[in-house]
Predict the structure.
Amino acid sequence: MTLTDAPTADDVIDELRSWLQDNWDPGLTVGQWWELLGLAGWAAPALPTTAYGRGLGRNDSVRVQNEIAAYGALSAPGGLGLLLAAPTIATHGTQQQIDHYVKRIVTGLDAWCQLFSEPGAGSDLAGLTCRADRDGDEWIVNGQKVWTSLGHVADLGMLIARTSPDLPKHQGITWFGMDMHQPGVDIRPLVEMTGHAMFNEVFLTDARVADDAIIGDRNNGWAVANTTLMHERSGLGAGGGTAAAGMAMPGSVAGQLGQRVGDLVSSAPRRRSGAGPVGGGSAKMLIDLARGNGTSSDATVRQDLVRLHTLGELARFNNLRLKAAKAAGQEIPGMANLAKLSMSDMMRLTRDLGLRIVGAQGMLHAYTDEARAVNDEATGNPFLSFVTGAALWAQAPPIYGGTDQVQRNIVGERVLGLPKEPSNDKTTPFSDLPKNA
């Protein structure tokens, strides 16, 4: 196929519309619909064609999500399986592993979590001490993980563990796909100040993982983990955009695979993508709030509303730049890190601006649906919970997925070529390095 023969984005959307007309049926179960969507390559269109995708760029993948939402169909199975595990396995796994793990991800059968961070290994992730010791065709895992998003509803975990403590710390790590439904896996939710418990700490005591569940080579897990982290920063960064006519959770724990798919979309709002998780969508909502209560007459509020909108547009254009670069066989180094940093800035601005707009009402956060209904009636503002929830949540994005400081270090060292701090951790065996107290 020549470049001029290659399908355009409009061709792809036309194909998708035709496919939706032929296949969407509100009477299907969630599992049946996701099987159709996943095996046709529409659940994760950014994945390669050899990994149940269509090889599309990020912007075109978002267009696919938007089109599915606009049609009124249920969106693809979300979560860390689709965001992180599938592209990592597609990059480093064997075809047999892709056919096993990725197929079950794109069809919603398995939900995944990320077993990376530890109490003593967060920003310095390569300092992890969770160990995996070989036992025949299996590995026995002992250690503790923390900040495990959605670990309580996961079927499998992306585990990185130390398999060779006598190698330098970046070289003795291995990436596994681990079963979360087994003895020795103790998951304990961590309640946040938002009132939710999305994160967990996980204690692993003689848990087992098969040798054929290693993704990439043994002791090459740091390279595999960096692929996972790259997709995490790209997915969490500003400018991605999401769209869904309805949402359902994948995996066996959530218990939604047998539900009628039409029941999950019939009353769901159909929305087009903004400029990312806190981009154009939140800017528009805050503009409407400011107009409604008169704070739009404040020049500084107007200025910051424009700033939030501008940041969202910059993120969107950066995605278009990246798409053009990839079409020319090039990359824009550090773009995922810059997107993650931009998202943190936008979230902080959304927090501060939202609280300024709602004033004293910003102290009335509701932690339950019942309390939210009371607040809505008392204030006459059904969007207050968004403002207060965003204000409490705003502290998280600069930390999870790699702190802002880590992102800046990566840009400085890997993109700008600035010198690293002196260290011997690249050559000294991990067992000889000083450990955190």
Q: What stands out?
A: Confidence is low (pLDDT under 50) at residues 1-5, 241-245, 267-280. Residues 274-402 form one domain. The chain has twelve helices and seven strands.
